[in-house]
Known about the structure:
Largest sheet: 5 strands, antiparallel
Oligomer: single chain
Low-confidence stretches: none
Number of domains: 2
Amino acid sequence: MLVSKAVAAKLYYLREGQGFNHFIYDKLVxxxxxxxxxxxxxxxxxxxxxxxxxxxxxxxxxxCCDIMEGYGMxxxxxxxxxxxxxxxxxxxxxxxxxxxKIRLRDIPEMNYLSTSDPPKGEVCFWSPSITKGYFLNxxxxxxxxxxxxxxxxxxxxxxxxxxIKIIDRAKKIFKLSHGEYIAPEKxxxxxxQSTFVSQCWLYGHSLRDHVIIFIVLDPDNLKxxxxxxxxxxxxxxxxxxxxxxxxxxxxC
Length: 252
């Protein structure tokens, strides 16, 4: 009961912008957790992939220190943005570090405009630390740059304090929570070649470590398969384990 009250109280004060320390509950509960890291940690950094807001808040109150989230790309030599110290809002990536400039590229077809309120658009980077291009791949290099600005493929929104919040993707790839990149269209084009598949759609989220695929089976080929395997083509055929095995084997 004490721990539950302590967590609830500290989360409330944290989200109200009153910091991650509490005079009473730190002495009773959280100093023990803080001591697990040596007791003198002032701040921590997280990056590589998004972290869920509730996890980030919980870690802040447990270890009694600020945890700042970095954002960048391999092409920008990792972190190019970082959340502002003490910012109570999670799910944002802060502002650019000292050697990086950022601007937003309008995407009219997605209704993301830098002139809107708040400004929205594709996040573009400029910095001496950014790659000059892809090795022996001028076509890929031309796709990745708009003049001297590197296109991130992420759609950002500028918060009132100048911090950036990633809200969408402009490029047709996304990253899962453990850092793996997924190209959904490429995978969909592979799966749809199956004789069983009429349509398919692959979905993923940056806070999850897996993807989900939705498949519509081809009714004609399904009927043909049922006839060849002496299986009744009724409403329950989709629950047939033999069919499931045949569909998955056909993917391979």
